[in-house]
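Researcher: Good morning. I'm working through a list of sequences from a screen, and I'd like to move beyond sequence-only analysis. For each chain I'm collecting a predicted structure so we can compare shapes side by side. This is the next one on the list. No need for commentary yet; just the structure.
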Amino acid sequence: MKRIFFVCILFSLFFSGQLSALVLVPGSPIDPATTLPVAINFFPVINDLADGVFISARATGAQEYAVAGYQRSSQKFVPYAEQSVLLNGETVTNPLYNAEVDLVAFATNQPSAFFAVPNKNSPILYYRSGFGALSNAPNITDANGNPASSVAAMVGTSGGVYMAVTPQGSTNFGDPGSGIILVATISNALQMLSTISLNASNIAFTLNTNPVTMMNGVSLAWSIPLNLVYCAGAHITSGAVPTDRVSLVARGFSTSITPILYPTFDVSSLVTGTNYGILATGASVTGAIAFEQLLETSTRQVLLVTCGRILNGGEMPIDVQNQVYAFPLNRETDPASGLVVSNTSGFLAKKGSNDAALTASDLYTITDAPVQVGQGPLPTNAILNQLLVNGDCVYAIVNAVFPGVYMSRALFDTNGFVIGWTSWARIINTPNPVLAAALNTITGTWFMLTTTGGVANTIMRTVWQAGDALTGVANSLIRLTGPAPQSITALNGYDYRTPGLGDISLLVCVERNQVILAQTGFTIPGTPPFYEQLPDFAYGTPIVATNTVLSTPVGSNPLVQITGGIFDDMEPLTTATIAHSDTIAESWLVVGGEYGAAIWAMQNGDGWGNAFGDNLSALPEGLVMQSLGNYTDVRTVYADAPYLYIATSSQVDRIDLTNGIANAPVVTIAKTGGNLGTANNVITDILFCKELGLISTTVGLYRIASGSSARAADPLWVFQKLPESEFPIKTITGYGLNGIANSLDQGGDCWILSGTARNNRSIINRLAISPFAGTIADNTVTPFACDSFVNQKPSFFLDFGIYQDSVVSDGAQYFFARSVESLIPTMIRTPNIRNPLAQPRSTNRFVGVQSLPMQPLLPLDSPSDINALLQEPATGAWYIATSTGLIVQG
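Model: Good morning. Structure tokens for this chain:
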């Protein structure tokens, strides 16, 4: 389900109506030929005045909305181009009022302040420090000291704005006289520094060989932690000599621009014909970069993220327009102050280190997993309109082929260095082109620029909804789990990464006495698969498996409701999973509850076969829930094909489904009071991936011992120490290269949430999982080091300072939930990224205390339990299942 609000503006008219956002932008869908699209500029810091979303007009007629910012408090755009301003101390008509505003940049230490160039071909810079206050710098010069011809790009910093300018008489950046200038803000006035020469002959691009050829512009990006600016050429070609070199990116600060290679780097070690991503050696080597961003991960590793790279032989710039890479940069700190030393930081880093690379063997190439964002290209012919970074995630905004927002998440080794990226996932899909987007992590809101009548003048905003406002699959779940209050006890989302799912995505909704299968989408062919969501009208009357018996063909019906029968003896139901056996090509639904476990199978033990097609029609008539063993207090059922694990409060059983469910071997592999601690120890959660096994309990975490395997006849378990952990442990969450735990054998991370309400404390530890096969080694499971750039002992990730029942994150958005207890109400909080104490960074304390309640406040009726938080795989919508209903963002 995807619920999006649209607002269109005709010329300078505006209206509000029953909409949750008021967007005022120029551009007419009636006559698009006479107007230009609207540009949206994004700023990553969310604040009370402007929530990271600004718009500027690319045509006259917008009046005071020529520059505007979205305001969370009023949920609308407010104008920043007032008609009358105080310019350099004199009251005048605002030069931005009703103007075409080509470029906008923002002061990182004052998010409500911005810099604007109304006409980039007549570069006059304006700085708005606050309401009604404007200052300007009318005499921007090129590197020769002459008036600059145009502004090719600009980016805001904490103390001013960097501008890439072209020389007098030319609009091509790279021609002699091109350069970078810093215009600083001092007491709300602008002060220009000298323009630093940066052209096609500069060593930063040539690496001390012949001049390169530059065309089609540049982009600028600012790194807050490094305090450095980066300039990337849109299209650069090396000289004609085989020993010529080319770099696509220059690094610099206010007084100098340098190569991105460390000063003592041995450039002669660069191998001709080897693609190092943003630099190479050879005659007429070409590279193209459409966008660049600087990302600081939660482990504080700094990455230069680019859309595009050096081209291989025979490639054209269009061939890399759907490829994204992340190149690690070095980071040196002063031992006394702990501050970054900019002069010696920000160069390409050595593999798996914060030290600068010194030879070519230190550098990554484009085939190395740590630099391949998304594990490879986006869909063929996809065109990126924008590149965003947030938290540990990279977002690609695509407006063609399969339009939407795509996401890839970084994975780390024990020292906090990126070892790989999850494959691209489309988290927002829409039939309309998405030309730009922004994410507000405080409210969990996406903003998107799209078109009407071919003109980019429509803003879409995702919203949180509940009750009667829900549509599609969410509405069906609420309707089928009534009457109110609903009692959804578990909600899981599955997609192609789950064996047995095949070509669909599916929600499995567990209520106290029933289970609902709800298809949400079907795959679009590709690698990896992406989903088209089912339309709202597809969700009508469900197929009902009365007494858990499926007696009616499912066909294309996306809803199957399983009720009665053995469920009446098992309730309350608490957990469900999908199990699979490749050997016999069968899949099953498994359900657990307070008084038992059951498997949905035919009388002969068959399930629904190897996988689904584009609907649930593979479910055969005759499926019925059948008892599994003799269990009580089932905490979780967990599938790791071909095994099914059933965890109660006191033991974990492993069921081998290789040859089906009939006579399947059952082995107790862990038991409290036996190989898993004392008898009063209580199991709370489990995670398995091939030979790896993790079991969380009320006294700590256990893992498979070195030299043993979770699939052994009698697995050995050892206690896994967690730095500064607070017991009991609540949940284990795994993130492998496919984004979930079933690929952890290839490496990835695990998040361990522990804490007690009595002590009012919760903490997250991260475990790095090294690739493994066969048996577990000493270094397979290791706690994270504190930070990627500090050589310290392992430490925690986040200390919330208050108790949380669950913490869910996609790598950028964080949701901290606590169910009602005593006089403490239900709450869901998100990090207040304006406060350094609340930022998701290694060793941050009091994150929960400093975080903010979800805004706007979610409709949580007290008392309420938060039973599930998940991101639905077909649409990327967030689902929150509570004891009083369902809340959906999308």
